[in-house]
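Intended use. Records such as the Aminotransferase class V-fold PLP-dependent enzyme entry shown here are meant for training and evaluating sequence-to-structure methods. They are not intended to support clinical decisions.
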Amino acid sequence: MVQSTLLPCQKHLFRLPDGVHYINCATRSPSSQAVEQAGHDALTRHANPFGLRPDDFFDGSASVRDKFAQLINLPDPERVALIPSVSYGMAIVARNLSRKPGIRAGQQIVLVGDEFPSDVYAWDRVTAELGLTIRTVPMPTGFPKGPRWNEQLLDAITPDTALVVVPPAHWMYGTRFDLVAVGQRAREVGAWLAVDGTQSVGALPFDWQAVQPDVLICAGYKWLMGPYSMGLACFGPAFDDGIPLEESWMNRLDSNQFHRLMDYQSAYRPKAYRYNVGEQTHFIQMPMLDAALTQLLDWQPARIQEYTEALMAPVWSELETLGCHVDPVDGTVGRAHHLVGLWLPEQADPMTVAQVLHERQVSVSARSGVLRIAPHLYNTPEDAQALVDALHIALR
């Protein structure tokens, strides 16, 4: 008999209070006790900097890069950069777009509809400078949405495409995009592929070698379960000799040799190091992100998907009796399990519904015309039932 790999609930590893039903990891993850303790330990060390070595400025980020590379099947951790936000990472892409081979006026940047603002605002200046236009592929009407949205996205990628910006799963709706197919199409037409993995990586399997993006950018405080204002970005070979946003001394060759810092060095450390944000060490936050990645490598994103699928499966069928709707599961083009857009009945106001849920200690997000429901391993069947009970009240 084959033993099930389904993880048990991990709520015991968190400090979430009883009676609070936090189904909202897509807004911000709670810190596990291990991440919390890593922060406390780092603060204690920070109180006495005696004995701090030059290599201490670099070792923490090396560990985080290694673990993140393992998480996404990236063979080379030197392709990982430390960034403060998705907007910072997308700004690097925008700054280097003029260097892309074959770039020309009249080409397009392809986006999916209702994308997060950081993935939209990044292109305003560069489109004007290079004579590019934005092509947005809107969410289809009706259900199921996923297969048609994927098909329309692929159709939009043509030889006139300079850049494709797409997430593994939509940040509001949870609709999955087949990034292996998108990456192949982008390479066929000579377009760059930039992936915002913030709302997926850590909870949904991501395979760098299969997708082959030019850039993957992730904020750290959602599904990576780390601290706010830290993120990770992976840059492919197209960016190896690119232009960074800032000229940090730490990103230069031999910058750990503090006794030689006045021997100014024009050469950068290899690959993605040039894109690291200044003061990348983050003595307090880096150990927290390291602890979070250690836990994710143990859990594994595929098992998070399995757990959230099993946890929420009874919920969707019951909510459909209230007139709600979710897009069906359909492999790489259906909906994810860790982030699900729940379309409410037409007459319902999502903000009002979310407020009723909040009053009953159920935390989800209202985004546009949907409720965004984002469970994780710390959620229990009681949390799922509390959501159902609260929606019965809110929609009656």
